[in-house]
Inverse folding.
């Protein structure tokens, strides 16, 4: 049925959004997605960091930022500070290095809590979407049997998506808590 297919497409988009949100949460290892929220003021506008520099992993605990235009180094530093990521950049000639401090046990627990909150928010979005689809099902189905069948099919998709959210959440928490 069309309504269930629409739900499935929106559920997939919601899952992808959840995955992307979790990428910006730091784990014990360096990852370039930590810098996704950084925007840099240059050339008269605010631009994402990845549009003005190359970001790569130096080692397990550091990131290296190589600006395409060396005059943007101060603006990149300001952008990193403004993003409030809890890290700072050190200028090394024509590059910037970000050394990621090791996560304390308290910080790991706090990050795991953030992951749980984001997962619950994603599940709430999914539940709201299910409610809207159920209302549409009641309006469009001609018989109670059809309505019951379509709602059952919808619930299978909801359960599968909820399970995927939990799997993604558990994987991220495991990455965070790993020492």
């Amino acid at each position: 049925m069309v309504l269930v297919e629409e739900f499935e497409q929106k559920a997939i988009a919601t899952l992808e959004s959840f995955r992307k949100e979790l990428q910006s949460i730091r784990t014990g290892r360096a990852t370039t997605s930590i810098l996704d929220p950084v925007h840099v003021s240059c050339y008269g506008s605010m631009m994402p960091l990845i549009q003005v520099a190359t970001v790569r992993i130096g080692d397990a605990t550091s990131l290296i930022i190589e600006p395409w235009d060396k005059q943007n180094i101060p603006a990149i530093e300001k952008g990193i500070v403004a993003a409030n990521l809890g890290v700072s950049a050190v200028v090394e000639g024509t590059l910037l290095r970000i050394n990621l401090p090791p996560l304390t046990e308290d910080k790991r627990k706090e990050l795991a809590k953030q992951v749980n909150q984001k997962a619950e928010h994603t599940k709430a979005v999914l539940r709201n979407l299910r409610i809207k689809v159920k209302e549409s099902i009641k309006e469009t189905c001609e018989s109670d049997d059809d309505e019951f069948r379509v709602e059952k099919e919808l619930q299978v998709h909801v359960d599968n998506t909820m399970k995927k959210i939990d799997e993604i959440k558990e994987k991220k928490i495991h990455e965070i808590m790993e020492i």
Notes: The longest helix spans residues 105-140. The longest strand covers residues 53-59. The radius of gyration is 22 Å.
